[in-house]
Amino acid sequence: FDEEDAKIKEKQITVLTREDARYPKSFLNLSDPPICLYVKGDLANFHWNDESYQELYFAVVGTRTPTAYGQQVTTKFSRELAESDVIIVSGMAMGIDALAHWAAIHAAKRTVAFLGCGVNIIYPWINRDLYHKIIDSGGLVISEFPPDKTTIKGHFVARNRLISGLSKGVLVAEGLIDSGSLITARYALQQGKDVFAPPAPITSDQSQAPNLLLKEGAKLVT
Predict the structure, then answer these.
(1) Are strands 194-197 and 86-90 parallel, antiparallel or unpaired?
(2) Helix/strand/coil for 94
(3) Which of 137, 78, 147, 140 is nearest to 114 (CA)?
(4) Pairwise CA distance, residues 64 & 75, whole Å
(5) What pLDDT score does 213 carry?
(6) Of the four, 5, 64, 76, 187, which is 20 to 30 A from 177 by CA?
């Protein structure tokens, strides 16, 4: 155990168990809360368990292949939310996730990314600059999977419940009918969180997810 602990510290990773005061209390309400969380970044600036700080976390998720409209919507909402001191949460995937994180960073604000692999693994590699920028700008990269754990499909589904679990609400910017962002939206509803979607062109396949959510009663954002 000591040897493993030393390796984790050497990689500048913080481990939060359920007994740690810094472990998000909102995760304890999940049907399957993570046994522990692995964190890259400075936790001192985050106070999700202290209501006196009134920190508001909000998830922005969507397709890995956004249209120009989806890019515009994501960047606008994420930037303006961040400028209002809302902490943007997403999954550091290509497309909508990355745009949401970058919008917060460009607003000189913190952002939180949940990974479907170990926090010392940059996935996808194309987002390596984003990974480092999230940490360098005061944000966090978090995973329930141990260091060096590579990603498999089921990991992304699991991490989606943490994206919604930390957040007050979830905005699905764009996505297909089988989009992973719909899984995040379902988790949010199960957790009693609000789901939001922008009006989207019916001629675009990437509008399937937000339009379905709006049909089902998601909050329309304009």
Answers:
(1) unpaired
(2) coil
(3) 140
(4) 14
(5) 98
(6) 76
- Tokens representing 101 are 């994180």
> Residue 63, class by beta-carbon neighbours within 10 Å (0-12 exposed, 13-18 middle, 19+ buried)?
buried
Do 120 and 150 form a contact (C-beta atoms < 8 A)?
no
Q: Please count the helices (runs of H) and the strands (runs of E) in the chain.
A: 7, 9
Q: Which residues contact 210 (CB under 8 A, 6 or more apart)?
A: 172, 173, 174, 175, 197, 198, 199, 200, 218
The series of mean pLDDT values per 10 residues for the chain, 222 residues long, is 75 95 96 96 96 96 98 98 98 98 98 97 97 98 96 89 98 96 96 97 96 97 96
Rounded-to-integer distance, Cα 149 and Cα 154, Å: 13
Half-sphere exposure of 31 (CA within 13 A, CB side): 7
Closest CA to 57 of 139, 146, 137: 139
Closest listed residue to residue 167, CA positions, set 134, 193, 196: 193
> Tokens 């991490």 sit at which residue?
159
